[in-house]
Structures are given as C-alpha cells and as structure tokens.
Design goal:
This protein has about 90 residues and is mostly helical. The chain is about 45% helix and about 5% strand. It is built from 2 helices and 2 strands, in the order H-H-E-E. It has a two-stranded antiparallel ribbon. Strand 1 and strand 2 form a beta hairpin. This is Polysaccharide deacetylase.
C-alpha cells in the first residue's frame, strides 16, 4: 500500500459573522459568543489534536512533519514540492 499524505489546518475567528446580526447593533451577545469561542474553543481544539496525535503515533508507520522541516527541505531543494510545474 502506498503512502497517504494528510494536512490538517485550522483557522479560528473569535468574533465571526456579522456583528449586530443576532440581537441588535453592537450586541454584547455577539461579542460574548465570539470571545467564548476564542478562549474556550481553541483550548478544546488543542486537546482534541493532542489526543489525535497520540492515537496516530501509536500506529507504527505514522510520521509527522513540522512546518519548520518543510521550510528547511524547500530551501535545500525547491523541486521537492513541485507538481506538474506548480508548487504545492
């Protein structure tokens, strides 16, 4: 069986959506919902990813690549990340 490469990225926006769309102009409900997502939600995501990484590492062929490693590899040989003439 061949290798399978997976990349997971997460982008969080603490005060998302249109401010004022859930109860009036400059609603405190909008801000509290957004701040709660940033302060509590991100910590929950980190815990989830830590559990996921432990699970994947328990399988013998799992490998992890940090962003720094990708940058070093690219600097050494940019053609490594070339795919049909385009960088991926």
């Amino acid at each position: 069986m061949g290798d399978i490469d997976v990349a997971i990225g997460v982008d969080t926006d603490c005060v998302a959506g249109w401010l004022g769309s859930y109860g009036g102009e400059d609603s405190l409900a909008d801000l509290s919902r957004g701040l709660s997502a940033g302060s509590e939600g991100v910590l929950r995501l980190l815990t989830l990813f830590e559990e996921f990484i432990r699970y994947v590492k328990s399988h013998e062929r799992a490998e992890f690549v940090a962003l720094e490693t990708v940058a070093e590899t690219f600097r050494a040989d940019p053609s490594v990340y070339e795919c049909e003439g385009e960088y991926i």
